[in-house]
């Protein structure tokens, strides 16, 4: 919500199931009251100091980013997650959980410990999680089939993915890999494999309806 092109992206995404990808790592804060002592030298977000952010600061920034998302989209977010999984830090998780409870939104969990911590705070979350980004593309056709075979027998599993085209403006280590993932998920054989496994693609709204 604080990156270049946010408004244009929101226009293109209207009508889709969109969650807040909370950014505490870079760029200017959305909350005008974000404390100066937690900003970087150029006035940006906490960056490497995120682990020490007080829960109150996280809560205020998460709420500001969520409100901006819903204003730009003209619809409610479906869930909350955090760039670089920074809610693995206890204070970030606490601040995010407060906003999630207030908004009645699920939060992405990436492991059993985070899942337990969220549920202990009264926050809905996914039952399992698969996905990563690295030097090579994560979602190749081969890994897609292997992940299908290894899925739990029940529950909601998030498949985190980064499909897209080569970035034209920003620099990122995950670039050409995005096109591999896009090809994997658009392949008709992937849809066929899901159907054969008896799996139903969904989004985080399934947790708020439960």
TrEMBL record:
Protein origin, superkingdom: Bacteria
Pfam families named in the record:
YdjC (PF04794)
Keyword Membrane present in the record's keywords: the answer is no
> S-adenosyl-L-methionine among the record's keywords?
no
Q: Which InterPro entries match?
A: Glyco_hydro/deAcase_b/a-brl, YdjC-like
Tell me which UniProt keywords the record has, alphabetically: Carbohydrate metabolism, Hydrolase, Magnesium, Metal-binding
Q: Which cofactor does it need?
A: Mg(2+)
PANTHER family in UniProt: CARBOHYDRATE DEACETYLASE, YDJC DEACETYLASE FAMILY MEMBER
Q: What is this protein called?
A: ChbG/HpnK family deacetylase
User: What is the species of this protein?
Assistant: Corallococcus caeni
